[in-house]
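thread: overnight batch results

M.L. [08:02]
morning all. the overnight job finished for the chain we discussed friday. pasting input first so we're all looking at the same thing
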Amino acid sequence: MSNDAGMAHLDCYLDQVRRQLGGLPKAEVEEILAELRSHVLDKVDGAPTPQRVEAAIEALGGPREVAKVNLTERVAATLEADRSAWRVFGAIGRLARLSVYGFFALLVSVMGYGAAAAFLLTAVVKPFMPEHAGLWRIPAPDGSYDYSIGTTDAPKGYELLGWWIIPIGVAVGLLLGWLTWRFGLFSVRRMRRTVQRGRA
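M.L. [08:03]
and the structure it wrote out:
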């Protein structure tokens, strides 16, 4: 009976880990849980009493910590094979809920790719809508100026770059996209190192 109680405790722990692994495909989640179950059963040496199971679980760490380590390792490993911008952005999104830095990295990535897209799209649209696409300086009610890039149906400000927005928009857009991609790679690696140090 005590062995049944120990196994029930292990199942409860693994269910908690499962809930923390929401960012992974089901097959990967099951693989992680199977590895954890096997590790615990090896530690209890065929006698899964509640006390032995609890000791093995404590050595592993809390469900959130274990999930964070496994999720970070798996996400980082996927980037070894495919480091495309879309894959890196997806990795940042999967890790964003695990730490404050992860959320910060996602925020920076969204802003970086958004700005890159704005410059590139403005450069592409300019030849077709020359009077409505560009970098705009718009007077504000308090006498200052606001700046905006993109297209507008009714221009209310002064377009600063004219046709120069095409080469500048392409160059700045590509540079911002590349810098954001590099930042994403750096962030995933940094989060991986952080969890590895935490486990050391």
